[in-house]
Amino acid sequence: MPRSPGEDMRIADRPTEEVAVPVDAPPGVVWDLVADIELPTRFSPELHTVRWLDGADVPAVGARFEGHNRNDVLGDWRTVCEVVEYTAPCVFGWAVFDADGRFGPAGTDPAHPTATWRFVLDPAGRGTRLRLAVRLGTAPSGLTAAVTRAPEHEEAIVTGRLAQLRRGMHATLDGIRALAESAP
After folding, report:
1. Is 50 exceeded by the pLDDT of residue 69?
2. What sign has the CA pseudo-torsion 58, 22, 174, 112?
3. Alpha-carbon span 28 to 18, nearest angstrom
4. Residue 137 CB neighbour total at 10 angstroms
5. Is the pLDDT of residue 53 over 60?
6. For the whole model, what pTM was predicted?
7. H or E segment to which residue 25 belongs
8. Which of 81, 125, 126, 140 has the most CB atoms around it within 10 Å of its CB?
9. Strand ranges (DSSP E) for the chain?
10. How far, in Å, CA of 174 to CA of 155, rounded?
11. Which H/E stretch holds residue 183?
12. What is the pLDDT of residue 2?
């Protein structure tokens, strides 16, 4: 989503980013890929491993999973996520938490995540329009830690993080599209 010049890019504004791709495959084929929480680890430059928690093994509202992430600035960290929206074959959303308290007090309240992610599938003729969106949260995260160290650069820090996320989102959607379009 392009931003207007002068648009605020502060964490408190909970900025969002969304990427969409057309997929030449029906929504059911795309959905089977999107609903696999491990699949993004094949394409994401940051997310490396994922596993279900608490005996869950499929997405459902309230189900939790953990992710292990890595980037050059923050190193390695773990998140715990809770599925907050799940309507097959249309929407899969989850809230992300710093459950280990690496960046501040640990949290697991879906109303106060570090971020919320969401896949949305829209039928498009015989294919699918696949969207991936993120909304930054105000709970402590690596982003809030960076802004705390340099508050005068908050807008640049937030803009830079959204650009990183956008690149990863494109890589993930492009990977899903390639798999969906090559499915029998």
Report:
1. yes
2. negative
3. 22
4. 23
5. yes
6. 0.92
7. none
8. 81
9. 16-23, 47-52, 64-71, 75-87, 91-97, 115-124, 127-136
10. 28
11. none
12. 46
| Cβ burial 22-45 (10 Å sphere, 16+ → b, else e) | ebebbbebbbbbbebbebbbebbe
Task: Determine the distance from the C-alpha atom of residue 122 to the mean position of all C-alpha atoms in its chain, rounded to a whole number.
Answer: 18
User: Of 170, 161, 138, 184, which Cα lies nearest the Cα of 25?
Assistant: 184
Q: Is 15 helix (H, G, I), strand (E, B) or coil?
A: coil
Q: What is the pLDDT of residue 8?
A: 63
Cα–Cα nearest to 174, from 36, 30, 57: 30
Peptide bond into 89 cis (omega under 30): yes
pLDDT 10s digits, 84-109 = 999 999 999 999 999 888 888 888 88
Tokens of 126: 């015989």
Residue 44 DSSP code: -
For residue 94, CA distances in Å to 40, 147, 182 come to 14, 24, 27
- pLDDT value at position 72? 86
